[in-house]
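Go through this one:
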Amino acid sequence: MSFKELIKLIRSDIHLKKVWFLHKESGFVKDIRVFLEPGTIAVITYRYGHWVRQMRVPIIKQILFLIYVICKMFVVLGFGIYIPSTMKVGKGFAIHNFSGIFLPRTTVGDNFIVFQNVTVGHLRGQGGNPPRIGNNVMLAAGSKVLGNLTIGDNVLVGANSVVVRDVASNSSVIGVPARVISNDMGWMTDKLAGRGDNW
């Protein structure tokens, strides 16, 4: 990944956060505040670490990786957000609020939105494989996604829900264990396109 591609990804992350959470703010407040939020700092730190990990010049890579390790420690200890640099996330990654967020080494599509106290991880006895997550997925506060499973595109996992099996695309799930309560996710695509209000 080139430095130009890194900046492009960070811009997509900032854009998603502005569209989803700060669209009612004035331009000045929106452009300043977005960079001061713990979730944004955590996402930028992750993007930087993922970029450094792919570098091929050993000496420069070691120096830049040391900077990443220091920043990651600050994010983990200060904000309670753990995102490994080995995680693969597409364009648009926004964390709203902070604390108690644990994300594993896995693959996620575009437009990934995470709230506080979210855990994504594997279960013992399933080969240690973490969940795979599609495009346009929101994990609401306190939700857990556990096991070797797949979450499709356009999915909302409700607050405090526990997902332990596959979730089909265009679904809203809630409960313990999570169950489908709606297959109408048009509001999410409208929101991502800049149409409609906060959910």
Q: What stands out?
A: The chain has one domain: 3-191.
